[in-house]
Amino acid sequence: MAEPAPVEDAVHFRRNRRTAVSAESYQPEDLNNRQKKVIPKSKEATKRIHEKLKNNFLFAHLDEEGRNDLSDVVFEAKFAPGDTIIKQGDQGDNFYIIEQGTCEIFVNDTQVLTCNPGDSFGELA
After folding, report:
1. Is the pTM of the predicted complex or chain greater than 0.70?
2. Is 50 exceeded by the pLDDT of residue 94?
3. Are the CB atoms for 95 and 123 separated by under 8 Å?
4. How high is the pLDDT of residue 9?
C-alpha cells in the first residue's frame, strides 16, 4: 500500500456538537449475531493502523481484540495539498488519524489547530 499524500491545507472542523444522539434499539444477544464489517487491507497497513490506535489517546485503552475490530473497518483516505476534508457545518461521518503530512483546522475562517502525524479529528458517532 502506497504512503498517503501529505495533507497541507485547510481542514474545516465543526465545533458545535450534537445535542442528541439516537440509535436503533437492540438486544444484547444481537451483538453476538452481528455481521462484522471488514475492509480488506495488507498486513503492513494493518500493522500501521494498530500502531496509530495504540498511540492515539482515544483508542490506547483497547485490547488486541478491540484494535483488531477497529482496524477491520478502517479505510485509507488520501488527500492532496489544498483539499478540504471536512467543511464547517457539513454532516461529519468519518474520523481521521493523520499518518503523514499536516493539516490545518479552521473555525469561522480562523485557524485554531495544526494536526501532525498521530493527531486525530472528526466524528466518532
Report:
1. no
2. yes
3. yes
4. 43
